[in-house]
UniProtKB/TrEMBL annotation:
Keyword terms of this UniProt record: Membrane, Transmembrane, Transmembrane helix
Domain of life of the native organism: Eukaryota
Entry keyword Translocase: no
Cited Gene3D superfamilies: 1.20.120.1630
Name of protein: DUF1295 domain-containing protein
Pfam families associated with the record: DUF1295 (PF06966)
Biased composition (Polar residues): 348-360
Organism: Paraphaeosphaeria minitans
Transmembrane segments: 62-80, 164-190
InterPro entries the record matches: UstE-like
Length: 373
């Protein structure tokens, strides 16, 4: 019978201090060659479950996760090109990080390593994934033929040839690697657990609770957006302000949500989404006693991606909704402005865009904070 708990030295580096857990040259580089023969090892033992378990446990867990992301990339590319639908990674966005973080926890359990910290990471990640998956599902994201409306803009601008290359380089490959990379702080936490043991510390308590709170903010932001569009659809169909919602006719006429969390941030759900992975990265820094570690590259890439995606979203919204530019002036993109001004300030003739030139920051300052309805 095969030993299902092989020597950890085969799969993990020998480390003595927690700062070493964040050293790329010691914890990642030596194990990357395992990626080269991993497909062949899996193929050779495909029909032997016990042997596959041995391969799994004798391979560095970060390498296994990286290999899985690379395996998915050509599949996503082929499906996208066959259907000319570029939302394939979008459908996996809320699922893959859950798989990767659960993988690190499972690997630690099977290898006999301390797991409390990783179990906490897995738990909050599952909550994050369940919320995002549910919200994507109820908006029809998993329906056959469903595609993010922004891809049509990109396709029209880029053309078929450029879109083909873009699909290879960014949509299928870069995005898949990014979804793997944002979970790599969990690998550092796994390594730290080998040194610090299974007892949870101050950082574990703070960051696990922080991520939980951020996920709650995402939930409320998504629900407020869902409620608004439900009210707007009813309003369009009946020309009457639905009584079951608390929106005014003026708010519904704008066409986009400016109430609740959306009165303080133009994209509170996006802000919280970035906050989850920024918090996980900071968790790994705190546990490894480092100010910055190599996982920062993934976190920064995630933030940049959201900047670009939000820029395109707002470009479309500004063309679609007359009042959106005023909303951009008054409310911060992700974080509240120092002097955030709501959209329910009196505008004279009711046309916010027509009053934009009169409603300068100086005028707002002179009249005090805007009135909330």
């Amino acid at each position: 019978m095969l030993d299902l708990r092989p020597t950890l030295r085969v799969a993990l580096p020998v480390l003595k201090t927690v700062p070493e857990c964040a050293d790329f040259s010691r914890t990642v580089s030596p194990f990357l060659p395992q990626l080269y023969d991993l497909p062949q090892r899996i193929f050779d033992n495909f029909n032997n479950l016990e042997a596959l378990q041995h391969v799994y446990l004798s391979t560095n867990p970060l390498v296994t996760a990286l290999g899985f992301s690379l395996f998915l990339s050509p599949i996503v590319f082929i499906v996208a090109e066959i259907n000319k639908n570029y939302s394939q990674v979008d459908r996996l966005w809320s699922i893959l990080p859950v798989i990767y973080n659960s993988h690190y926890a499972l690997w630690a359990h099977l290898s006999g390593l301390p797991t409390q910290r990783l179990d906490h990471v897995m738990a909050v990640t599952i909550l994050w994934g369940a919320r995002l998956t549910f919200n994507y599902w109820r908006k029809g994201g998993y329906s056959v033929g469903s595609e993010d409306y922004r891809w049509n803009i990109v396709k029209d601008y880029a053309g078929p040839a450029v879109m083909f290359v873009f699909n290879i380089v960014f949509i299928s490959l870069a995005q898949n690697i990014l979804l793997f990379a944002i979970t790599t702080p969990t690998y550092i936490l796994l390594l730290c657990s080998r040194i610090t043991g299974d007892e949870l510390n101050f950082y574990d308590s703070i960051f696990s609770k922080l991520i939980f709170v951020i996920v709650l903010i995402e939930f409320f932001a998504d629900q407020q957006q869902w409620d608004f569009h439900g009210a707007k659809d009813t309003y369009k169909a009946t020309a009457k302000v639905p009584k079951e919602y608390s929106y005014t006719r003026e708010q519904l006429d704008r066409g986009f949500n400016t109430s609740g969390l959306w009165a303080w941030s133009r994209h509170p759900n996006f802000a919280a989404e970035q906050g989850v992975w920024l918090a996980l990265y900071q968790w790994s820094c705190s546990e490894s006693e480092t100010y910055v570690n190599w996982c920062f590259a993934a976190t920064l890439s995630y933030l940049i991606l959201f900047q670009a995606s939000t820029w395109l979203t707002e470009l479309i919204s500004a063309k679609k909704y007359p009042d959106y530019r005023l909303y951009q002036d008054r409310v911060g993109r992700f974080l509240p402005k120092i002097a955030t001004g709501g959209m329910d300030a009196p505008t004279g003739n009711g046309n916010a865009v027509g009053q934009k030139q009169q409603d300068t920051p100086k005028a707002v300052k002179a009249t005090g904070s805007t009135r909330k309805r």
